[in-house]
From TrEMBL, chains A, B:
Domain Acetyl-CoA dehydrogenase-like C-terminal span(s) in chain numbering: 467-584
Requisite cofactors: FAD
Domain Acyl-CoA dehydrogenase/oxidase N-terminal: 38-156
Origin organism lineage: Bacteria, Pseudomonadati, Pseudomonadota, Alphaproteobacteria, Hyphomicrobiales
Catalytic activity as recorded in UniProt: 3-(methylsulfanyl)propanoyl-CoA + oxidized [electron-transfer flavoprotein] + H(+) = 3-(methylsulfanyl)acryloyl-CoA + reduced [electron-transfer flavoprotein]
Broad EC category: oxidoreductase
PANTHER family: ACYL-COA DEHYDROGENASE, BROAD-SPECIFICITY LINEAR ACYL-COA DEHYDROGENASE FADE5
Organism: Bosea vaviloviae
Protein name stated in the entry: 3-methylmercaptopropionyl-CoA dehydrogenase
Keywords assigned: FAD, Flavoprotein, Oxidoreductase
Family, similarity comment: Belongs to the acyl-CoA dehydrogenase family.
Domain Acyl-CoA dehydrogenase/oxidase C-terminal: 283-448
Pfam annotation, one family: Acyl-CoA_dh_M
Length: 591, 591
């Protein structure tokens, strides 16, 4: 079945949860008003459904293939990419001085979600280009910017990120690739990289690799890593393409999902060294990477939302179509009903919907905070927004990708036996979703980042501010006296209380028992997400309800609060009293 | 990496959780003592590791293929099956009068777990044969038994179950296949069946299909369904094979997992009708199916345990091998540590282990109850054991297969990027596990069966008995005063309290609001599993602990109680106060 972008919920989430209306009212998005937002979303929705979505299954079946060093993407892939770039979508968030449209991250996020719902493996390539543009824009020399940025922004060329090596995955300390200065301002790059997404392909004329490597005599560890730009084809002074650089794709992986996205092993310097240019300062490569890390993590969060939305739509359509059994209140001898009448099927669909929209709420809130951190005229406000972005980013990344897997798996379940058949398409969503909890920092690493680096920001004031906002929402729900909310107020209050206590425990324990803090990091992140997502859905329901009529937003907020957010007290226990159980693992694994 | 059967935990679970020691002491297993049990387990473990396990990846890569009506299983498949059957493993549980060994279901269950850990898609075929043997033994005529049983028991022939049709999946009312009496005691069978596991293959000379079909003028609905035996090759009076029957495999499915298990579309009667023989009485086919349904569901539960165990072993081995980062207490500049030192990795592995062993505990308890329901001399005790089997079977099936998916998914996560690469083998476990929540009655249907048909047994006394047993275990844990239990007693008490209240609510509501009961069925089943599994692990830890030393069993029971069973109160709320949120789905899906 085809994908239809949920423009209504996307716009409602942007406006009422992420605060687009306030951004506009504050004058922070002069290039954008409500009407233009709607128009962009409608156009993106159309392109996603009409052009990209039909490629999803084709891409899965054909995959990308490697032969004699050449990677061929699936049929229609290149044409769709070219049309997409020519329509200007690649340039949406890019800086205006390099041909971009400079539109807010919030709008870009909505579009990113749509591309990824339409075809996850397709949309992944351009996400890497976004990262390359950001790194280059923030840290590249004028020469590099002039040579590469316009082509990357237009989408004529694509960018990649070359971090991982066989011995250096989550731990970049172990990185071994080398860069030797030639003396003319260039470097000779040698080394082996693995898991390089779109490391080689036939979609663009040139590919701009960003490569982490060590200079001779660089300090050990991550303080000795530098970032280099290494193009597939060298670029002549007139901008035309010159020689093929000394790099090649030495293999592509056979993966569980995202078959169309070529995951490449890259060999740099077989013939003496690929020519590269330093980005930013020597030995400061990791800092350059961190510039774009938060944004990349937001994009992966959006992939989680996207695949969940696609799986939800497919399961819903199946449940409305497939007939088995009869409704409880059907007269005897009635014909079979669509399975959506069965309470357990409804429960599954509501769970899929509630998780998806909660993840969307959190991810879009990150995007808004990112915009505010860049656009607020007041420095203190920019800093506050930056800290808000910093805290919510790992939560969005881990929660949205976790629920991406869960929702895709439940989607298979709704389909029954048909879900297990590849032709149905439900299984592909699970296979595709499964990467997003791993790459761009595993979800375990997101949780560690949250508790060790983010909670202490501004002495805990940043997280306190977020919790205070949640309390405001709870207060509004309780004051609203809207029957459709059911027990939403009480359940969310319990969740926020649990989060606050767990946060205090984390902040009090971080200095004395880091092992205990790390043992509880993952349940803590989930607890945070339940409170943040649950209040996000409630915020939307408060804004969209009318009179006393039940609405989809009310029902979704209620389901999340009453059925999902009720796990909060258990997660609090796992945080504050669970470290002993994790530590006892020693008794198990020593045996 | 290879599979090594966890014989120690299997035996401890059989003895201390499922009560093998009591079975033996009560004289109910005269053919089996403790030493012989250990000997059988050791032999099975050896066969599983040495012969079957190496086929797992081969089977996944090659799959079974269909060409010109012939299904070819992967290389080595037939030879391994033949060796397995010749070693007597197929005959283990079968009746002695037909060449079986008549060993208890509990022992058979342990072996079934091992075969499925070794290669899920391989072990699935013989499970269908077990069902065919049971149906034939219980309901077949003497002629059918004489002709088919010995060959099915020896494994020379395999059996299948032909239930599903395109329009009749979970709802067998809609079944359309026909059976016309010929007048000579045989029937002409016509119809299309789908999703027939091992419906056609090259592993045995003959295949004995059990087929549900309707007689002319049979009543509508499930009361008009009869069961027929329809062999692939007709059998001559001397037992030799005769003509090919009028049936064929018209297609095999391209599936997410269990690639080596051929999932066939079967066409019966293209040339006028396949010759079949009635099993049991006319129009009582469903009752015949139900004879074996509980046992089949137990076997699928064991598949869930099996795949979880395999995924756990693989993730554990990886975590002990793969080096990234350093331990918290490592000196500065220390070399990288195996990732198992990291608390979040330990948390994941402990969760995998605790879920797997809890599921094993529940499944083995079902097997023991099944044995008691067959072997107790006292009728009242047989009935009590049968009711216990009836209640625990859907819980075992749904919980074990749900955690099978979860554990396999977490196994991928532990592997990081390597987990997404098919060559690693971790992804196959998730793909294979994903079917078990669906077939043999979806897990939603298990939950409905539990609350509508099983809870009311003996006016609620059967379930009350199980809860009372859990309370005894909680009391023992609290009295034990063993530091390694941590807060296990308090957490399990809270879980059992929640289960008891939810059960009372279910029994009180079932007559007045079936919609509310069905809306809470799935969370209720999970709540039951947490209490049953948690007390099962505690039982084992109580039995195996020695002095004050920490043990693996104590740590596992503690982790389950403190980190997983703490969800119980939330599940209680979903049962007793969640129906409104599910009912509100109407506001969403009507829109």
């Amino acid at each position: 079945m085809n994908y239809r972008a949920p423009v209504e919920d996307i716009l409602a989430t942007m406006r009422h949860v992420a605060g687009l209306d306030r951004l506009i009212a504050d004058g922070l998005t002069p290039e954008l008003d409500g009407d233009m937002t709607q128009a962009v979303l409608d156009e993106a929705a159309k392109f996603a459904s009409d052009v990209i979505a039909p490629l999803n299954r084709i891409g899965d079946k054909h995959g990308s293939t490697l032969k004699d060093g050449v990677v061929t993407t699936p049929p229609g892939w290149k044409e769709a990419y070219t049309a997409w770039a020519q329509a200007g979508w690649n340039a949406l968030p890019a800086p205006e001085e390099h041909g971009g449209q400079g539109l807010p991250a919030l709008l870009q996020s909505a579009c990113t979600e749509m591309w990824n719902s339409a075809a996850f493996a397709f949309a992944l390539g351009p996400l890497l280009t976004v990262g390359a543009i950001e790194a280059l824009h923030a840290h590249g020399s004028e020469h590099l910017k002039e040579t590469y940025l316009a082509k990357l922004v237009s989408g004529e060329w694509m960018g990649t990120m070359n971090l991982t090596e066989p011995q250096a995955g989550s731990d970049l300390n172990a990185l071994r690739s080398k860069a030797e200065p030639v003396g003319d301002g260039t470097y000779r790059i040698t080394g082996q990289k693995i898991f390089i997404t779109y490391g080689e392909h036939d979609m663009t004329e040139n590919i701009v690799h960003l490569v982490l490597a060590r200079l001779p005599d660089a300090p050990a560890g991550t303080r000795g890593i530098s970032l280099f730009l290494v193009p597939k084809y060298l670029v002549n002074a007139d901008g035309s393409l010159g020689e093929h650089n000394d790099l090649r794709c030495s293999g592509i992986e056979h993966k569980l999902g995202i078959h169309a996205s070529p995951t490449c092993s890259m060999a740099f310097g077989d013939k003496g060294g690929a020519i590269g240019w330093l980005i930013g300062e020597e030995n400061r490569g990791l800092a350059c990477m961190f510039t774009m890390m938060n944004n990349a993590r937001l994009n992966v969060a959006l992939q989680g939302v996207a695949i969940a939305e696609r799986a939800y739509q497919q399961a819903l359509a199946f449940a409305q179509e497939r007939k088995q059994g009869t409704a409880l209140d059907a007269p005897k001898g009635a014909p079979m009903s669509p399975i959506i009448v069965h309470p357990d099927i409804r429960r599954m669909l509501m769970e899929m919907r509630a998780k998806t929209q909660a993840a969307r709420a959190i991810a879009y809130q990150v995007a808004e905070a990112l915009d505010r951190s860049r656009r607020e005229p007041d420095e203190a406000k920019r800093k506050a927004a930056a800290e808000r972005t910093a805290i919510l980013t790992p939560i969005a990344k881990a929660y949205a990708t976790d629920i991406g897997v869960e929702v895709a798996s439940t989607g298979i379940q709704v389909h029954g036996g048909m879900g297990f058949i590849e032709e149905t398409g439900a299984a592909q969503h699970l296979r595709d979703a499964r990467i997003a909890t791993i790459y761009e920092g595993t979800n375990g690493i997101q949780a560690i980042d949250l508790v060790l680096r983010k909670l202490p920001l501004s002495g805990g004031q940043a997280v306190a501010g977020l919790i205070a906002e949640m309390r405001d929402v709870v207060g509004e729900v309780e004051a609203a006296n809207t029957p459709g909310f059911g027990r939403t107020g009480a359940r969310l209050r319990a969740a926020v209380d649990a989060l606050e206590r767990a946060t205090q425990w984390m902040l009090a324990t971080i200095g004395s028992d880091q092992g205990a803090v790390l043992a509880g990091a993952t349940p803590y992140l989930k607890l945070f997400a339940l409170a943040q997502g649950g209040t996000g859905l409630a915020r939307k329901a408060l804004a969209t309800r009318a009179d006393d009529k039940p609405t989809g937003d009310l029902a979704t907020a209620r389901f999340f609060a009453e059925i999902l957010a009720t796990e909060a007290p258990a997660l609090e226990l796992a945080v504050t009293e669970g470290a002993g159980a994790v530590a006892d693992a020693a008794a198990v694994f020593a045996a």
